[in-house]
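Would you mind writing out a protein's amino acid sequence and the numbers that encode its backbone to help me picture the idea?
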Amino acid sequence: MFEVSRYTPELCDTWNAFVKNSKQGTFLFDRRYMDYHADRFHDHSLMIWQNGRLMALLPANACGQVLYSHQGLTYGGMITDEKATQETVCNAFDTVTSLLRDEGFNKVVYKPVPHIFHRMPAEEDLFAISLRYGARLVSRDASATISMDHRLRFAESRRSGLRKALANGVKIAWTDDLESFWTILSRNLADKYGSKPVHSVEEMRMLMHNFPDNIKLCMAYRNDGEPLGGTILYITQQVVHTQYISASGDGKKLGALDLLFHHLINETQFTQKYFDFGTSAMDNSNELKHPLLFQKLGFGGRTVCYDTYEWTVSQL
């Protein structure tokens, strides 16, 4: 027997413990991460139970008559435990769909967890939503990802920058100098795209404090200590992911990011299977930011898809 209940703060510990032991959950689904922007989204996360045992979670928010894989997260989808099979996941979706129909929802927008984050095979949800509910692919972002067991040689443009950074004495350091990095990042986003970081510097500092093993800042500096650029890393069990990357004008001229990523990819002793640079699509578009993608491909990244599906509940 399957039952579905809404998440409530009283179930925070139960939720977080399930995420930690799930097949595809990452710290982004920990409520200490999800709830930092609770004021921006109407949370409608669901917990799915089988004969009284929690077997799946669905991080989600509601907007009108649409249920979204949480819009405050890069990816989402149904989070399951090791006992979940194709049959139980299909049954879980049937129960969720029945509830959503009764609650007046007419559509689901769904972002599955990309396979590189999976601790073990966990694509039962894709089978269920595609073949059972006719979900259609509505968006596909291209992320540049390196398999750490099969690293490619840097492109000549990146090796040239690396040589320049070494010749100019650029240094790499792990740091909590978030204000300096945010100044560089914010200026670049404003100048290039007329936008700003998704997180404020205060939010990112709070998240780094809550997840010190998962969120880290690595930066490049001149010999005199001037910050040249850096990256915020989101570190999960399977993947080292660059949440933000940015360099100052001088940093770009000196190849600061080329040295930085050489250090992270080839010299840092990460045990994760993948190094993921994230997507390079324009906002709300399948058009790529080609200069950004060119840089990521130069480090040896190759495509992993971040997908979004949707289906109509009222027609089922």
